[in-house]
Amino acid sequence: MQKLEIMESKGSCLDTQEKFGSTEDGKSTMDHHETSRENDETSMKKEAASKDQHDDNDEKLENNLEVGAENDEEIEEILSEAVKEERIKEAEEIKAKGNTEFLQGEFEKAVNFYTEAMTICPKVAKKSLAVLFGNRAACYVKMKENLPAIKDCTSALDLDQYYIKVRIRRAQAYEAEEKLEEAFEDYKKVLELDRTSKVAIEAVQRLPDQIKEKNEKLKEEMMGKLKDLGNMFLKPFGLSTDNFKLQQDPSTGGYTVNFQK
């Protein structure tokens, strides 16, 4: 029994020598493995530290965005792509809530959701931001707040100049504010992009006469004010603007002034 145990022990030592060779060779191999393992651990620690630093940066950026950063573009330059995608997705979810409120006629609530989504959506997502501005403008139109609507439409068009629906929306808001020349220019631009737009075709045919009529009214108002001003200065001399008659030259469109007692 003792011999057998000794032989087994010798066999065990032989297995060890076959695996590692001589004692010096085994030590060298083990040292190599130990060094390699230490290098791997060092590399893993560096990666973990880098990831922690990256996460810390993102967390700091999130906090800065919440309190309102002075320079959004600089912040977005160091914002990771993953965070940007996450913020775009979050903005889309909030926009969907705004759409629901809009369809239910809750325009003020919809405005709040669109505004919230704008503060989250990265500036690089220009298409998404253009849609948010356009949707909020639609709310303002429904609320009869045409000036904010025009402003939001302009912001949307700055981001996407080919946004036809928003250009039509701005033209209609211009019309509501009697800014007919501006509306006319928007409708013409729409036709450059889409010659089949019935709304733009009708407006381009209709607006020139309205613009002419508006200008005639403005001219009459201006002449009335000038007449009142003239009477104020002529009254001490026993005269009035009725003593002066304007005659228009049909060929040139200019006016001549004739004095009559």
Describe this structure in words.
It is a single chain. This protein is mainly alpha-helical and 261 residues long. Helix content is 77%, strand content 4%. It has a two-stranded antiparallel ribbon with strand order 1-2. Strand 1 and strand 2 (255-259) form a beta hairpin. Helix 4 packs antiparallel against helix 5 (107-120), helix 5 (107-120) packs antiparallel against helix 6 (126-142) and helix 9 packs antiparallel against helix 10 (198-234). Mean pLDDT is 77; it is low at 1-30.
Note the main sheet. Answer: 2 strands, antiparallel
Elements, N to C (H/E) = HHHHHHHHHHEE
CATH superfamily of the domain at 80-235: Tetratricopeptide repeat domain
Strand fraction band? under 5%
Number of helices: 10
**How large is the radius of gyration?**
39 Å
Per CATH, the class of the domain at 80-235 reads: Mainly Alpha
Q: Percent helix among the residues? A: over 70%
Based on secondary structure, the structural category is mainly alpha
Which residues sit in consecutive blocks of at least 5 with pLDDT less than 50? 1-30
- Shape by Cα distribution: elongated
Q: Which second-level CATH architecture of the domain at 80-235 applies?
A: Alpha Horseshoe
CATH domain fold name of the domain at 80-235: Serine Threonine Protein Phosphatase 5, Tetratricopeptide repeat
Give the N-terminus to C-terminus distance in angstroms: 153 Å
Major sheet strand order: 1-2
Q: Would you count the extended β strands for me?
A: 2
Average pLDDT for all residues: 77
